[in-house]
Specification:
With 168 residues, this protein is mainly beta. Helix content is 0%, strand content 50%.
Length: 168
Amino acid sequence: LACSRANAVVAYSQPHNGTGALHQSSWWDPDDSDYDQYVWDSFTLGTNQAITEVQWRGGFDPAFFGSGGPVVHFTVAFYASIAANSQPDIVNPPLASYLTSGNAGQTPAGTFGGVPMYDYAFTLPSPFQAAAGTKYWVQIEAWQHGIPDWGLAGGSSGNGSHFRFLRG
């Protein structure tokens, strides 16, 4: 996952760890299901930034054999942290939320650990103003018309953790 400013300076980066590990973050559009899962990853910036673009890598869980179908849209949302900074504040609405118009330029990135991966990029319609030293959480959620099987690729840097929410 990478967030960048308009001049392409990377403000946040979570490079892919090169494996086939996926963290499911998708839902069954339009009515959701017990298979829905959501994942957030945290980041903190050293300086105030206006984030204008989000880039990420992901793929489809081969155990589901493409049952979710293609990604119709993505939601990209930024959340505040709870007081302890240990998880996103999901009780309150996101600080900013955006909907892609399509699959965010899904481009093949190769096969890792037997899982085909794709790169995605989305230019935000209005910048997200991030303050220096504040812990934020970004959620990227795929919309699919079947059993959700899309997930974010595992990362190789950061603190090695993420926050997951299961429907049910």
